[in-house]
Design goal:
The protein is an alpha+beta fold. Helices cover 25% and strands 27% of the residues. Strands 1, 2, 3, 4, 5 and 10 form a six-stranded antiparallel β-sheet that branches. It has a two-stranded antiparallel sheet with strand order 6-7. It starts with 5 loop residues before the first strand and ends with a strand.
């Protein structure tokens, strides 16, 4: 019997160290080609920090991946990759600087709210740093009934810069 694969939308970012190198290595670690297969990757974008503004800008990107993992297993895998690249969630400043942040934005059309995981991501439709990379690779994909491209048209993109491929 063939494995049932789910399409996941994942946002990645960071603002400490060699962020673009970290993002490339983190995507490779997350998307091993077996449990998680990379289907599409956006460009990198320099974005202003949100919440805590006295920190360097972030670099953000997004991926579309196919996976046979359950939502919580995918979340745990993403958090393990964050730790592999120096993330220490329990000891960091909320919305502060970080080497790597990986957020599960959507898991097919699943809507779920548990203490550990809310899908789609509760603030995805408010954040240009999530929507702009996603709109590049999945503009017609819907989050809570709204096309990503349409959601992007409703948010402020001030200060976001698409970075050239290195």
């Amino acid at each position: 019997m063939a494995e049932v694969l789910t399409e996941a939308l994942i946002s990645l970012g960071g603002n400490v160290g060699d962020v673009r190198g970290t993002l490339a290595r983190a995507i490779a670690a997350l998307c091993d080609g077996t449990a998680v297969r990379l289907l599409a990757r956006s460009s990198d974008y320099r974005t202003p920090p949100v919440g805590v503004t006295d920190q360097p800008p972030f670099i953000n990107c997004a991926i579309v991946a196919a996976t046979g993992l359950a939502p919580n297993a995918l979340l745990h895998r993403a958090q393990a990759v964050e730790r592999q690249f120096g993330r220490d969630r329990p000891h960091e400043r909320h919305w502060g600087p970080r080497t790597l942040d990986i957020d599960l934005i959507a898991y097919d059309d699943l809507v779920r709210k548990t203490p550990e995981l809310t899908l789609p991501h509760p603030r995805a439709l408010e954040r240009a740093f999530v929507l702009l990379p996603l709109a590049e690779i999945a503009p017609d994909r819907r989050l809570l009934g709204l096309r990503i491209a349409d959601a992007l048209a409703k948010v402020d993109r001030t200060g976001i810069e698409k970075l050239v491929t290195s």
